[in-house]
Description:
Layout: E1 11-12, E2 15-16, E3 22-31, E4 37-45, E5 51-61, E6 67-74, E7 85-92, H1 95-99, E8 102-111, E9 117-128, E10 134-142, E11 152-159, E12 164-170, E13 182-189, H2 192-195, E14 198-206, E15 211-212, E16 223-225
Parallel strand pairs: 9-15, 9-16
Antiparallel strand pairs: 1-2, 3-4, 4-7, 5-6, 5-8, 9-10, 10-13, 11-12, 11-14
Amino acid sequence: MEKFFIITIVFVGLTPLAFGEVFIQNDQQYIGDDEALHIVGEIKNNLQVPLNQINIHITLLDEKGYLIAIKETSSLVNMIMPGMKGPFDLILTNNEAKKTKSYSLELDYKVSTPKSQVIDITESELFKDNYNNLMITGIVTNRGDITANNVAVIATLYDKEGNVAAVSRIHPEPDYLRADDYVFFVVTIPDKIQTSSINDYTLIAESEEYAAVPEFPVGTLVLLVGTLFVYIGITRYSGRIIPSLISVTNLK
């Protein structure tokens, strides 16, 4: 499949940012089991400053390289801190999706005021239920001094080639966390076509007040077959779960 890749140089004030310090990586397109076209990837911030208002402009091309349309989507992470990444997912379900054979990418963003990195994912496990649905469960903690509102957890899943295979953004319930409090979360990935190829994943969390700490260090995956019923008894008040890193092995 032929693919074109373009990054625009972004100006902040009168000073241009060096080419290649913010870039898109691990992108690909696929047809999911929802029969929609997905174009996914992630933005890597190698600058020394945070980024926000991050938009990806995707030019859709047919099999002859002719323009079909230009679409826009955003990073699922509102603020990408230095050295971190934010995934994106453009979903198309119309005739444009059927005609698209390749694409090109352009990126724009703004430099942002830093936020404290205190929204921390302290525990994570990957499971499949009896219906072969993939889900990630874990604990997100507010290590800040004030309440974190509109807390979100963002999952990026990768295939064996290291390309983004699926992404998801969820809000735990409740989606606010007082200082030093935590909440249990569940991220579901229902696309069975994509989940069959998943080999790795990362998780980050953020809120309106705070940015994410560096990605949860998952490494390779452990896959446990079970059902959601094992989680029914788990609530944020079912006893304090000691945060720990999981032991991981390769996903078959």
